[in-house]
Amino acid sequence: MNPVQNPDATTEPATEGERGGQAAIIAETVGAVLAHAADALQQGTAADAAEIQMITDAMVRLLVGAPLRSDGKLTIKTLAEEAGLRRNKLTHKHTGLKDLFYALVKAQQGPPRPFTDKEREVSDKQKKDLTRVRAERDGLRTKIQQMARIIHVLEVENHHLRESAGTDGIVRVMRGR
């Protein structure tokens, strides 16, 4: 039985699937309550209650991982697409549902797990390798710049030699600097 349904159950860390189910139950319950409250208080129209129901149904589908009309990402844009509404309905009119969706998505993701020793060792090795590769890259850049200067000097000297050879084809030695 689910801890949401049985408050006496021991609180064990929920798996990702259970968190999605819990979030979907919360979304469905809140949506039903909001739609019923809007009807009871006569604040909104029947269209408002229908929008609330469409949004909460879309929340449930996204949170359990079974989207019908969207790519399944947990964003407001996708929620609006899944509900068949324009995005501004969530960002301007039903801001409470938008905030609820963000809270449920955050709760569904759960706390990050700590690194294991092996993962930490791999990460340290990758950092050392990255440092070594960057140093090697910088050394190669320096060598490339030196080679470019040498090539330029040789091209200039070659050009001067060709000019000094003249038409007779004899190459004359240039004096050192």
Please, could you describe this protein's structure?
- The chain contains 6 helices and no strands.
- The chain has helices at 16-41, 46-64, 76-83, 87-93, 95-109, 117-165.
- The protein has 177 residues and is mainly alpha-helical.
- It is elongated and about 105 Å long.
- Residues 1-13 have low confidence and may be disordered.
- 70% of the residues lie in helices and 0% in strands.
Summarize the entry for a quick read.
This protein is mainly α and 177 residues long. It has helices spanning 16-41, 46-64, 76-83, 87-93, 95-109, 117-165. The model is unreliable at 1-13 (pLDDT under 50).
Key attributes of the depicted protein:
single chain, 6 helices, disordered N terminus, 177 residues, mainly alpha, elongated
* Helix/strand order, N-terminal first: HHHHHH
Number of strands: 0
Largest sheet: none
Structural class: mainly alpha
Q: Topology of this structure?
A:
Blueprint: H1 16-41, H2 46-64, H3 76-83, H4 87-93, H5 95-109, H6 117-165
Helix pairs in contact: 1-2, 1-5, 2-3, 2-5, 3-4, 4-5
Biased composition (Polar residues): 1-13
Region (Disordered): 1-20, 109-128
Biased composition (Basic and acidic residues): 115-128
